[in-house]
Amino acid sequence: MLSMVAAFGGLDWALLGVILLLLFFLIFLSLAEMGLSRMTKPKAAAMAEGGVKQGRALHQLVGEPEKWVNPLLLSVNVCQTVQATLTGVVSGRLFGPTGVAIGVLLNVVVFFVFAEAVPKTYAVQQPDRAALSTSKLISLLVGFWPLMMISKGLIGLTNIVVKGKGLEQGPFVGEQEFLGLVEAAAQEEVIEHEERELIESIIEFGDTVVREIMRPRPDIVSVDFGSTIDAAIDEAFEHGVSRMPVMSEDEDGNQDVVGIAYTKDLMKRIRAGEGSQSVDSLIRPAVVIPENKPVAKLMREMQRDHFHMAIVADEYGSITGLVTLEDCLEELVGEIVDEHDDEDPMVRSLPNGESLVDAGMAISEFNDHFETKLDEDEFDTVGGFLFGILEHVPVTGESLEIDGWRFVVDELEGRRITKVRVLPVVDVE
Fold first, then answer.
1. Bridge partner list, 406
2. Whole-angstrom distance, CA of residue 414 vs CA of residue 36
3. What are phi and psi of 278, to 5 degrees?
4. Is 350 exposed, middle or buried (0-12, 13-18, 19+ CB in 10 A)?
5. 226 FRET partner, CA 20 to 30 A, in 118, 205, 250, 324?
């Protein structure tokens, strides 16, 4: 050991000092990177307004992340490269070729633990303190114009090699990262839980297609082509609808939608004493859309073209369901109950501990309610899921066990499952 120390020359001690300085600087940069990335704009603004020391500098950094992210990352890369090179030089001078390998190993262990894991773990545990303590120096660092120019130049070079809108417009986060930030903000009471749920609904809304929210064909309230206006208005009043598809049947018994009848048009004719006439003269054109159409796109079309109802068809052109503007809005804000809606819940608890589930309940909602992991990709509803698993038309009382739950077919309408009883399976040893 003494001989090794004696072998140290003035240059070696100088290089070792530089390595230690770089280590401390990398610790500072890691602390700043994690602390600033976990700081939200509302919290930073509150700190600045409350007169917290360095709160104003923190607010400026959080408000414009594109100004500090790239310079900070560039500084980290430069420091890591320089210290790794210097460590190799010092190790090589002391131990020869073997020393280079030793230096690399020590560099990986020491710098990973002390310059990465330790400061970032602390910043995760104490994000406010980490962000505040580093904000002033980071502001000075990103204000150093040579560093800014080099950073912009490298980003420009990157965009030449790999054209990317993201790099041109600044840093961004993915969907899952954003949802994680929203969840953290709700837990820290930066936003309300209702706001969190709305944000999550908006994010998920972009991936939702019409098939997932439509009213299936058996549930469509319709009127037959050739029916009287009186019969049509009775049907509308019974179900509390303002619009109804008008269905026609060909010689082979196949039904198709010929148009839409508006309740307001029917009422005008009845007031004029024309209730015995055919509803055919009041039919308005129907909008037909594919079942894989994104709901967000459909809403924009409804707003642009001023329609509130669309008929849904599959890839073969067969009618599979119906979707309204209210269905689209409910996907965003939750169930909308008006004076005409039947408030029968999707899940009803029974006295014996079982749950009676509407078979039309979405698989995603069922999974959320019962904390299950049923397949959401292949099936849309609980009834469709059971029908697909059974691979035959069930009978009332037929049951099956899936993931620790027993599903019992409670009610059928023809070949369609309408009600299902659900209960946990109890293991008896």
1. 401, 423
2. 60
3. -75, 145
4. exposed
5. 324
Q: How many CB atoms lie within 10 A of CB 409?
A: 22
Beta bridge partners of residue 321, listed in sequence order: 216, 312
Distances (CA, A) of 65 to 37, 51, 126, 131: 9, 22, 20, 13
User: Cα separation of 249 and 319, whole Å?
Assistant: 13
β-strand partners of 312:
289, 321
Write down all domains in the chain, each with its CATH number in brackets: 2-172 (no CATH), 215-333 (3.10.580.10), 347-424 (3.30.465.10)
Unique residue bearing structure tokens 């620790």 = 404
Helix extents (H) in 7-144: 10-37, 41-49, 55-63, 69-95, 97-112, 118-125, 127-142
Sign of the alpha-carbon torsion through 198, 199, 202, 204 = negative
Q: In what order do the strands lie in the sheet with 255-262?
A: 223-224, 243-249, 255-262
pLDDT of residue 231: 92
Maximum distance among all Cα pairs of the chain, rounded to whole angstroms? 115
DSSP 3-state percent helix, strand, coil across the chain (nearest 5): 55, 15, 30
Angle, nearest 10°, between helix axes 118-125 and 127-142? Answer: 120
Residue 282 DSSP class:
G
For residue 408, the surrounding DSSP H or E stretch is strand 405-413
CA-CA distance, 171 to 67, in Å (whole number)?
Answer: 10
Adjacency order of strands within the sheet including 288-290 = 215-216, 319-324, 309-313, 288-290
Give phi and psi for 404, each to the nearest 5. 80, 10
Assess whether pLDDT exceeds 80 at residue 163.
no
Say if residue 168's pLDDT is above 80.
no
Q: Looking up tokens 């100088």, which residue turns up? A: 14
Cα gap 382→376, rounded to integer Å? 10
- DSSP assignments along 223-256, one per residue: EETT-BHHHHHHHHHHHT-SEEEEEEE-TTS-EE
pLDDT more than 90, % of the chain: 14
The pair of three-digit structure tokens given for residue 167, joined into one six-digit string: 């790099």
In which band, very low, low, confident or very high, does the pLDDT at 264 lie, cut at 50, 70 and 90? very high
Highest mean pLDDT: which of 198-202, 257-261, 366-370, 382-386? 257-261
The yes-or-no verdict on residue 138 having pLDDT over 70 is yes
Q: Kindly provide the b/e burial profile for residues 88-121, where b requires at least 16 CB atoms within 10 angstroms of the residue's own CB.
A: bbbbbebeeeebeeebeeebeeebeeebbeebbe
Task: Centre a 10 Å sphere on the Cβ of residue 392 and count the other Cβ atoms it contains.
Answer: 8
- Which candidate, 141, 136, 132, 88, places its Cα nearest to that of 111? 88
